[in-house]
Design goal:
Length: 67
């Protein structure tokens, strides 16, 4: 947490604004990631096929070897 005096905040409003925007963007990315994880977990629980890391690598290699 950053603690500043009210005078410092008034004098450097652009820094405060930039920091607020940065934190909001971080929060938005966190929420997007959480939504993706929840969707993946729901798919897993519903019986959707799951792939190991090695299976995923093989699938990606097959895709990218197509020229």
């Amino acid at each position: 947490m950053i603690i500043k005096s009210s005078t410092a905040l008034c004098n450097d409003y652009s820094m405060v604004s930039d920091l607020a925007h940065e934190k909001a963007e971080q929060r938005e990315e966190t929420l997007k990631l959480r939504a993706k994880l929840e969707a993946a977990e729901a798919a897993r629980l519903s019986g959707a096929p799951a792939y190991t890391l090695e299976e995923s690598r093989k699938r990606l290699e097959a895709i990218y070897q197509r020229d």
